[in-house]
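Continuing from the previous page...

OK, I double-checked the sequence for 3-deoxy-D-manno-octulosonic acid transferase against my notes and this is the correct one:
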Amino acid sequence: MIRPLYSLLLIGAQPFLRRKLRRRGAAEPGYLHAIDERFGRYRTAAEPGALWIHAVSLGETRAAAILLERLRERDPSLRVLLTHGTATGWAEGERLLRTGDCQAWLPWDTPGAVRRFLEHFRPSAGVLMETEVWPNVVAECRARQVPLVLANARLSGKSLAQARRLARLSRPAYGGLAAAWAQTEADAQRLREAGASVQGVFGNLKFDAAPDPVQLAQGRAWRAALGLPVVMFASSREGEEAQFLDAVRALGDAAAGIRWLIVPRHPQRFDEVAALVAARGFGMARRSQWAAPPEDAQVWIGDSLGEMALYYGLADCALLGGSFEPLGGQNLIEAAACGCPVVMGPHTFNFAEAAALAQEAGAALRVGGMEEGVRAAIELGMDAPRREATAAAGLSFAAAHRGAADRTAEAVLALIRG
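Thanks. Re-ran it with the corrected sequence; updated C-alpha cells here:
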C-alpha cells in the first residue's frame, strides 16, 4: 500500500518539479534540455538491448567512465544507454558516448514515467551507480524481468537510518535488486540491513581512475616555476568558502606568502564564490581568464570542468571540500592518486572507510575545524620533506586499493549473458 501512496505524492509534485527545473535552468541551461524526458516522454530513436547505466551526477559519471572503459576492453561491441539526473552528470557523460550509444534523463520515479522509459529503451540490464535506488524503477524492472544491480554501492549510517524509518518503502526497493556490489565491508553490512542482496565487496571504482598525465605534469610545472606554496580547497561546498576565506584573512601576514586555490564542487556556484573572494578584498584570478596562474593574485578560482588533475598537480596540499560542514565529504581518492596531500575536516561519513584508510596510510590528516585546517595546510605546504612523504603515501595508498573496475566489469558481463 505504501508504494502507491508514494507514487501519488510524486505525481502531485510534478508541477513543482517543472518549476524547479526552470529555476535551475536559469543558472545551468543544461537543466532545460529535454525536460519531457524527466516525465518519461522520449523522442529520440532507441534500439533495444543496450546496457543501461544510471549515473546521477558528476562523481557517479566519473565512476561509470572507469567501469565503461573496462567493459569495452572486454566487449568492444557493447552498446550503452547512459542516464543522469544533473546537468554536470549529463555534460560529463556526453564524453563517454560512442556510435550506437544513447543518453537520456532518468524520469521522475512515477509508475507511468518509468514504464514509458523501459518500453522505449528496452535495456538488457540496468546498473545503478553507488546510491540511486528508486522504488518504482526497481519494481518496474522486476515486472519486466530487467536485471537491475547497484554497483560501486555505498550506504552511510545516516542513509541506513533513513531507510529504516521508511522501511515499508525502502526495503522492497533494496530487496528487489538482482545484486548489490559494495565498496566496503561496512557498506555491505548496511546494505544487507536495508534489504539488499550483497553479492560481492569489490572496492571503490574510483581507485582505478588514472589522473590525466598531461594535466598533472602541467600543474606540477606551474608549481615548480611559481616557487610559492599553493593550498587548494578542493570541491568546496556552500557555507565552507566563507569560513575558509575568513580563516585565511585572520592569519594576516602568516598567509601572505601562500597562494590559495578554490575549486567549487558545483559549477553554478563559480560566480558566487568569486563574489565572496572579492567582498573580502583579496586579489583574485579565475582559471577561465588565465593561461598560467598569475603570481600577483592571492586567490585563484578553479572555474573549469575536467581539470582536477591539473589543480592537484598545482597544489602542495588540499583541504577536502564537504568535510568542514556536515555534508559527508567529497572523494579524496583522486587527490591521493595525484600525490596531493589531503587535510580533512570532521565530516567524512560519505567516504568513511576511504578517509580512515587514507589517514592510517599517512596520505591525509584530520583536523577539527576550518581554522585548524588552514593552519595545518600552511604547515604542510611549507614543510617540503613532510609534504613529499605524505604525497608518496598517497600514491601508495591509491595503488594498493585498485582492482574494483575489473571485478565489477566481469560481474556486469555475467549479468548480461545471464
